[in-house]
Every structure is written in C-alpha cells, then in structure tokens.
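Students often ask what a holo structure prediction actually looks like on paper. The answer is less mysterious than it sounds. You provide the chain, you provide the ligand, and the output is a string of discrete structure tokens encoding the 3D arrangement of the protein together with zinc ion.
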Amino acid sequence: MKVREALSWQKENWNGIVRHISNHRLPHAILLVGNSGLGKQYFAKLLAKYLLCLKRVGVLPCDSCKGCDLTRAGNHPDLIIVEPEKTGKSIGIEDVRKLSDRLNKTAHQGGWKVALINPADSLTLHSSNALLKTLEEPTRNTTILMTSQFVWRLPNTVRSRCHRVVFNTPPKSLSLKWIEQFAESPSKAQEALAVADGRPFLAKHLLGTHIYKHRSEFEKWITKVSRFEASPLDAARFCQSSDHVQLVDWFLTYLAKRVQQDLAKKCVPPVFIFYDKIFRARSWFLSKANPNPQLIWEEIFLDFRTLCLKMGKDLDWSNNQTE
Ligand SMILES: [Zn+2]
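The corresponding structure tokens follow.
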C-alpha cells in the first residue's frame, strides 16, 4: 500500500504533528498508541517519509525527490526500522544498541534521522532500559517513533519521555468509505468492518483472507457453549487447525465487547479471572513450548462453561450479540 497522505480518520493527528514540525518543535520521541488495525504503522511511515522528503508540498511529502524514492524503496540510510524477527518475538538489547549507535552518527543526507520501533511492545525490559539513554540525550534533528497497542507494558520511564499520539476507532462512515475501495461490494465491506470491530486496516486484512467467516463461526461456538448447546470438547475440536493466537484474540475481544455493554453485571472478578486465563493461553501459543492446542482449548471452553454456570443469567452473552 502506497504511503502518500494521512488517511481520512488520521487527519487531526497528522495536522497536529505537522504543526510541531513547522514550529520546529517535533518531540524527540513519539509514541503512537491505539488498537491494532487503525493504521499506526502507516502513520509512522508517512511521518518518516515527510521528515526525510527534500521538497515537501505543504502537509505532504512530494513523492518524487531522492528522499521519497529511497524511503519508498525501503533503503533510506537515515530511516532505521527496528522490528522483531517474527510476530510475537522480542526486540533484544543488541538491536537497541545498534539503533542508538546509528542515531548518534550524522545523517547521511544531512537532514533528519528517523527511527521506527514497531511495535514498542516487543521491547524487553532490558532493551527498554537501553533505549532510555537515547531518549534522555537526544541528538539534533532526530526522532524516534514507536507504535504500541499495549502501552501499559512499557516502563513508565520510557512512556514519560514520549509524546503521545492516540489513535481511536474511526467513525463508521469514514472507515466504510475507505474499505469499499478494496471490497467486492459495499455489503462485504460492511461485514468485514463489523468483524474487525470497526478497525479499518484489520477489516482490509480480513477481506483479503475471508478470515471473517471463520471468526463468525468461532463466535457461534462460544455462544453455543455459553447456552449449553454445544460441548466444550466439540468447540475445542473446531479450533484445531486454526491460528490459535488469532482465535485467542477473538475470544478476548468477544468478552471485552460484551463486558463493556453491561459493566454492572459482567465487570466482576470471575470474568477477569477467566480473561486472564485466556491471556495466559495466548502466551502458551506464542511460546516455543509446543503446547497441545486441543487440551488448551478444552480447558478454556470447560472453564468458560463453568463461568457461565456460576453466573447464570448474569452472563447471558447470547442476548448481547452485536453483529
Ligand atoms: Zn520528497
């Protein structure tokens, strides 16, 4: 996807940042905070491109100078992107040290130096500490951009040194208009956006994979277990050949959505305990421990059924279908 201008729902954030640049007050470290699927990475890449552009046109990069060409090709020497090797892996202390060394050198093109840590949630505690020194002693015309979905996981010492740009779920009308350009029909766009909980980039991703059908089937299993219409074992069987981390995330979203709809009855300790349990399962699936998915899913669904039993009517998820 070409990075040219701020997306319709990012205009306000973008204009704020451009104002900082025009006033020569761009913060040395910027934390782009918000759920996944809202285009934080896109925004960070646009900002990097804009800073490294040699002939900016108002609030946009020119898209044709040497700086823009190098950024587009992914080999601008003054843009340093630090990412984990694979999704779910950490960014180690060595990567942060290398980044700091490069930021301490003069810019190759004589302008800005931009670092992008994507996502900052992947920094270990040690690598966050290593980054602190760079955040405390910034060099001129340098900015460090960090994306974060789980911002509370970053040490306060890091968070407090960053300027925060917050991304919220955009109004439905804006998202739909954007997704329709990628969808076969407006109804498909609408369907994908609903499954993606209103997050445009996630909806776009879902459109390409038809994964949203799988998600709605998965949610049906959760509902059936909650109504005692299906056994936890069958539900676990359904999860077998799937991307387990993805399923866990869907389960977490499913719960969170329903808790938000009825805080008085559902925002209670047994629900939190169950929520934590699923979150732990997420770590197992991410770890190399080679877990047995069938067993883990059986346990999750058995616990879920126990939770539904314990809470009786108060936990009637099925009355709160939002899709
Ligand atoms: Zn340019």
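The chain is about 55% helix and 10% strand.
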